[in-house]
Amino acid sequence: MAPAGTERRPRTARVDVAIPVYNEAQVLEDSVRGVHTYLTESLSQTFRIVIVDNASTDGTLPLARGLEAELDAVSVDHLAEKGRGRALRHAWEGSSADVVAYMDVDLSTGLEALPPLVAPLISGHSDIAIGTRLGRGSVVERSPRRELISRSYNRVLRAVLRARFTDAQCGFKALRTDAARELLPQVRDEGWFFDTELLILAERSGMRIHEVPVDWVEDPDSSVAILRTAIEDLSGTWRLRKQLTRRRLAGLGAPAQLLRFAAVGAFSTALYVGLYLGLRVEMAPQIANVLALAISAITIRPPTAASPSPGAAAGRWSATTLRASASSPSVWPPPPPCSQGSCLSRRTPRPWPRRSHSASRMRSRRSCGSSGCASGSSARSAGPPRSASSE
Question: Which of 74, 104, 172, 295 has the greatest number of CB atoms lying within 10 Å of its CB?
Answer without folding.
Answer: 172
